[in-house]
Every structure is written in structure tokens, then in C-alpha cells.
Predict the structure.
Amino acid sequence: MKLRICTFFRSPGNVQGAWRQAVGRLLLSAALAILSPLLWASAEQEEGSKKPKPVDVVLLFDTSGSMLKTDPLQLRYQGVKQVSNFLGKSDRLAVIGFSDQARIFRPLKRIAPDSLAEFESEMGAIRSEGQYTDILEGIQAAQRLLESDPRAGVERAVVLISDGKMEPTPAKGLPFARTLELVHDVLPILKSKETRVYTLALSEHADRPLLREIAGATDGVSFYAASASELKQVFEQLFEAMVPTTAQPVAIRSFHVEEAAEEASFFVSHSAGAKISLTAPNGDHISPIHKPDHVRWFTGEKFSFVTIPEPESGDWEVEGIEPADSFAALLGNLKLAVDWPVTIRSEEPALMQARLYEGDKPISLPEMSSLVRVGYQVAPTDRISAPILDGSLNDEGRSGDKVAGDGIFSGEVSLKEIGEYRLTISAKSPNFTRAQQVSFRVKPRLLVLEAELGGHPGQHEAEPEAGESEHGSGHQGDEGERGALRGDEHTIFKALVSREVANMRDVSVTLIARSADRKRYEIPLKRSAEDPYVYEVHAGALPKDGRYTLSAELRAQGKNRLGVSGSTPELAFIRKVSPHPAETRATVVVQEQEPAAKEQPLTLVTVGIITLLNVALGIAAYVFLWKKRPVRSTPAPKYIPQRSLLDAIGELEGKVAKSEIALDDPLLEQMRARASSQASETPPEPAKEASP
């Protein structure tokens, strides 16, 4: 690196010009004093980056027969020939092929410019003829070859290329045992001797999780090529990662780590083969190759996951997060949250969920979810016992998990025995481990459905009688009706409720029956007179013979008027009435899925007749209301009887009380004449209107 500085000054024409010249020289000297160390350091760094450490590389090829299908054109060997573009004069290269055994095709030696033809000949001698894939055998052979001729001050690397899984010859042991020996015995030795293993999974049939674990355990990098046509680009990325060049990082992100942080995890999404590095607040540079022992660094195909226990507080920098759509995130407060009820019912599946959080923010990173393994263990706490149940949760959209890759690990779990339990859930990845415990109780089921066949309750299959057809209603064949209970109209369905239900109100138990033709029947069950915890109904309540799918449903009100519900698993039942049965019908039938009757369309004639009738009725009503005169009410005159008439009536009543009076009595005639004369002489008084 060269530095050229040119200065230009005009000749001073006066004292003021001389003063300006002196000031300019002083500023220039100060600038040189400040910039010179930085420029020289930059120059030294540039010169030093052109001289990386020598490397000893072992190319480890899978030579099993499956490689003929994965790479029929043997493009992997053509890609390896590019190695001469990455290795220098002081670097050494060896080639080993493995299937059930390992074979050295090229010892560990330098590649001279005039020996390329020899190298191509060595590569052409490799044949894919093996029947097994013993990855442990190949890595052990590479380890022995590197240790047979060690050099001080060199980088040591193994490049493993495989398209299969661990399948050793049976004489050497099972695949599981060979994998354990590789992970627990061989890889730690390679790491202690600073031998990195770079893996390349060729095709989707390769054991990519195992290859990623091999690379991560030795601080190497794992790559993936979906087809042989992608090998050239992947080889360039692989050797670029193994033998770094002078390319400078293209992007930097800064993250602040608090002083009290116990752990800091950096999740970086990037392009394949990108070189990611961290810079600590004190200036220390951390990369997958140069890092302290306590730093856990996992490199995937398109992401890196770095965890630093007890990190230095301050601003950390992440370098190399190109392209623009890549990102980096700091997970400083990583927690595991568990969603599990404190009470479940015996034999009823319950959904168990777990999720990682950064503080109070849920983490939804599909790449990170692929690294995390979430397992659970259930142990009783009301007795001394070993764990009675263990398993794993998934984020793959199956077995109770709703959405794949959303960061929520789920699974359905059920327990039969009633009691107190403790649930332990742990999330493990190559970088961290988190665990949570939850105490819960298993309570009896609210409802159990049984069928009493001929006085014997049970839920097992009733054997058909000799010669009896198994077709029932004709909708199901023999295969569809196996395992179903059989009975007649005297079979009793009993729903057993728990003692907890006795304290509830408005308890109703219903038998739900679905027939073979997909009709649904709801039949109420009555409480038994002998046992208050039993609700029952006879099979005669079913509408007809045939196959049914039965279940019982409970509805009640618990404490604080909260609704309580429960149901039972479905029970298959086939009814066939006795030879002389009484006619039976279902008590309640709802939601019969019968086709609705088609509505007849109105014809034009019908519409016309209806319209005419409406018009005629309207005209008649109008005429009737128009011609009808209003009726006015007139107040009736008030009648006031005369005093003489009242006296005559009193005199007549006195005679009647003493004796009978004939109608032609002269007294009556006089009274009539007197009343008529007085009425004609005195006009009636006008009536007064009542005040409102």
C-alpha cells in the first residue's frame, strides 16, 4: 500500500501570508501524526491478510453405490479439481473414499502446478461400488492420516461429502451405536486438536442433521446441494469458508448488551457461504475459526447462531450480513414459556405447547426452530415413582401442531391414572438449553359411557352369532362392522358421571347417536333410581336397526354459574331387535340431514291471479270506507220523575203489601190520568253536558 501526499502553498506576499503558511503546515503535521498509525496498520493488515496459514486438507468421499444415482456424471470430482484455485504452494491435500471401509486414493502431499494431471488421474480412480455408508470409518481414517504426518502452525480440515445416512456393515454394529461413538468419542478429539470438519450433504436423502452436528461440533461449516448441478457453486463457498480470502465484510450491525446480561445469543440470517464475525466492545474479533472455547458458534446453510455466556457489556458488532434482506437479532433474555392446564381429565387428550421468548416477544424463526429440540417428561409427585411418560413436541404442523415453523412446539398428551404430577419441558439446541416445570392434577373423567349387553356391562366386541350376517343395515361391510358392540332393544346404555357432578346444577346427559346414513339423534338419558351417578336409556330408543356411533354428552352449571361440559369417546354399536319386538321410536331426533324439498316456482298465471285479487280487495275496501257515514253520538236528556208520581207509587206499594190489587182498579186509572196530565203541562229540562 502506497501513500502519496502533495502540498501546495502560494508564495507569501506579506506577513499575513506567512502566518497562513505556518498554520497550514502545523495542521498538516497534526493530521499526519493522527492518520499515519492508522494507515500503516491498515497496510500491515492488508499485507498480512494475503498470507493465511498453510492448510492440510483431507477430501473424504462417500463411495457407496447410491452416489451413482445422486451424481451420475461424477460432477463432484470435477468440482474438487477446483481445489487448486484455493490451495497454495505450502498447502497439502489428501483424498479418501469410504463405504463399509476407508481407502486412501491420495496421500497427504502438496499439489504442484505440474502435477495436475496426476491429481486428475487419482480422482478418476475413485469408483462408487460400496454397499454401506460408514461415516465413522471415513472420519477415523482422515484423523489417522492427519496425525501420521503433523505440521506445526497449520490449519487442519476434513471435507466430508455424502448423500446417505449412517449405515455400517452389520459386523461393526448398529447405526445408532456407530453414531454415538462418532459424536461422543471421535468429534471431541478432533475439536481438541483443532481439526475442523466441513460437511456437504448431496441430495435430500443425506442425513443432514447428522452432518450439521458433525460440522458444528468441530467448528466447521455444513453445506447442502440439492442436486449435482449445484456442486460447483457449493464447492466455491466451501473452500472460501475453509481458506478465507481478503474480501472485506459488506455490512455491519451494532447491538447493545446490558451489564447484567448472563448470556447473549446472536441469530444472523445471511446468504450461503457468507463470512460472519463478531467484534466485542473491547475490540476482540470472534469468528467460527477464531473464537474462545466458551463461545458456542453454530453455522447453518443460510444462518449463524452464536451464544456468548457472560458477555462483556457494551456495543457488539456483527459483520457480513449481506444481502440486504438478511438480518441479525440479539437474543439476550431467552426464556421458555409453557402452555399446559393445571387440571386435566383422565384419558382425555390435552394440548401441550411450548415457545421461546426474547423478553416478552415471541420468537418465530423457522431456521432456529429447525435447531431446537423440545422434549417433555411427566413424573408423579404424590408417590415415589420414576417418570411415567416422556416424549417430544414438534413445530412441523402435525400431531396437534397447527402451523409449521411458527415457533410454537405442540403435542397431544393424555394420562390415565388419577393423581398429582409434575411436567418438565426442556428446549435444547447446539447453543443453549432452557427448561420449565409445571405442577398439575389428573382428575376423574366427568362422564363414561358403557353398554350393558344382557345384564353384563362392557366395551369389548360382542361376537356375532353363528351364521349371522354382519351387514346390519346394509350400509357397512364386514370390515366396517368389526369391533362393534352388538345387542337388541333391551341393551342398556349407561353414562356414569363422577361425584364432582353431584354438586352441580341443571345436569343433563344426552346420548348422541349417528346412524350409518349420517343422521344425528339426540336421546336424553334419565337418572337411575338405584344409583344417582348413573344415567341410562334402552337401545329401544334408537329409531331402527343398524349400525350407530354413540357418545354421551354432559351439560351442567358449576361454581359461579359457569358452564361445564364433557363428552365420551365414540362407541360403535349394532342393534338388531329380538324376533318379536315392541315398536320403539327415538325420543328426540334432531339435525336429520335429509335433502330439503324443492320449492315449486310460481307460474305466470298464478302471479296474475294473485295480483288481480289484491287489486280488487283494495278497491272494495276503499269504496266501503268512503261511503260509510260517520256516526255522531248525542247525549241523552236527563229524566227527573215528578213528586206526585212518586207518592202514587208509594201508595200503590202500600196497598200491594196489604192485599192484591186488580189491574182494573180505579186507583190505577186515576194514577195514570194524573201522571199523563202532569207530563203534558211541564216541559222537560234540557240535559247538561258532562264535564270532561
